[in-house]
Amino acid sequence: MKYETVIGLEVHVELATNSKIFCSCSAHSYGADPNEHVCPACCGMPGMLPVVNKRVVDFGMKAGLMLNCDINRTTTFDKKSYYYPDLPAAYQTTQWFAPVAVNGTVEIETSNGRKSVRIKQIHMEEDAGKLVHDIREDTTHVDFNRTSVPLIEIVSQPDLSSAEEVEAYLERLKNLLRYAKVAECEMAHGTMRCDVNLSVRPEGTDILGVRTEMKNMNSIEAIKRAIEYEVARHIDAIENGTEVLVQETRRWDDIKGKSYAMRTKETAGDYRYFPDPNVMPVVIDDEWFNAIKETLPEFPEVKRARYAEEFGLSEYDADQLSKSIALCECFEGAVSVCKNAKDAANWMISEVMSILNARKMTYDMLNIDGKALGEIILLVSEGKVGRANGKKILAAMFDDETIEPAKYAEENGLVMSNDTGLIEATAKAAVAADPKAVSDFKGGKEKALMSLFGRCMKELKGNCDPQVLRKILIDEINKQ
Length: 480
Ligand code: ZN
Ligand code: MN
Hints:
Elements (H helix, E strand, L loop, with lengths): L2 E12 L39 H13 L3 E2 L2 E2 L2 E4 L9 E4 L6 E10 L2 E14 L3 E3 L8 E3 L6 E7 L6 H17 L12 E11 L9 E6 L2 H21 L7 E6 L4 E7 L9 E2 L6 E2 L2 H9 L5 H12 L3 H7 L3 H14 L2 H18 L11 H12 L5 H13 L5 H7 L8 H14 L1 H8 L5 H12 L6 H14 L1
Parallel strand pairs: 12-13
Antiparallel strand pairs: 1-10, 1-11, 2-6, 3-16, 4-5, 4-15, 6-7, 7-10, 8-9, 11-12, 13-14
Helix pairs in contact: 2-3, 5-6, 6-8, 7-8, 7-9, 9-10, 12-14, 12-15, 13-14, 14-15
The chain binds zinc ion and manganese (II) ion (MN).
The site of manganese (II) ion (MN) has 3 residues, from loops.
């Protein structure tokens, strides 16, 4: 029998606000000492009162609008009860009855074509702390820096049916949320985490099979392997009766390449959700709603179309650039200075992207200033700096964001020379040093010129117009 896989995702995304969701503690604990960013509120002390961080609601709304959701204009917080040492209040403040955003869609594209994935809801909630097990044997330490860091949880309908679709969906979420500047969405940094709900059923049927959930997956590769393993396990259980499938939470061990039962799945009733009496309902009036709507960025598709139309870029170039807001901003910054979109696109795609690839950086990690790139492009197109040296300046900018291209070129001997006397002397010396190349060239071997050309360019540190050098070299050879 043929089976189809049914996957729904719950994706937790850390919002990029400065402070936590219900107190003024810093939400960024990278490099901080354990329990440095804590206060009675985020530590769940008796009598503490949470106050909703407005930025969190702004970002929650923005995320909802990016994913085509309806915004609940009165959104409320609820308590989700569970006991675990990383949760000091013994309940998580989250949204159950009226989440900030509902009924969205996310469009994805895979080798199977386009697909629309329905979003059930997006709710805002607080993160839990971190348990640290490896400081001393037989002890566990708790770090509350992460408690109450704001999250949104994006809950999809079970509309995904392969690892490829899951990857495309996660990439799309990341792209959209980064465009809106509400979140980093970097799995490797823990700012995006994913729970995978999965079941299989005979192809063409409507009934859902027994569903298992794998929690807190934090790499796309691990998610792909876990999906493959779970699908095989489910089908084996159904076809060969190797085990009885039960609804449960499982842990994926990426090293062993296996999933293990953790606990039977809780139902909503186990969490005893109830409205949090300490947090007032948040009412989003028209003024607030419209203000947020106005801050929405151009969507990737709109940008892509505009790049093709306004700048005359090829479909491929426009597509590549719109893959990441960081690329778009660098490109647009460069165009604003050099006023030549095709040149700027060319530099982005051939030079900037190859440096990113060579340094194993993602597009989103691009940190160079587009305006500075525009200045390099100008220096090269005006013949003040050779193209190869322009690339050198660009590479240096990846290490030092403060570099000013013209000044850097000046200080590092990368300015093009108009000194034909120097070029002639260099060409003369090269010709004298390599009589074989000279006779080869005279004998019709065009390639022999390249070795002489290269020798001169190296000598001149690239600061020479290639056309001028070529002409002078040929003149020198003919004098022989
Ligand atoms: Zn706090
Ligand atoms: Mn959650």
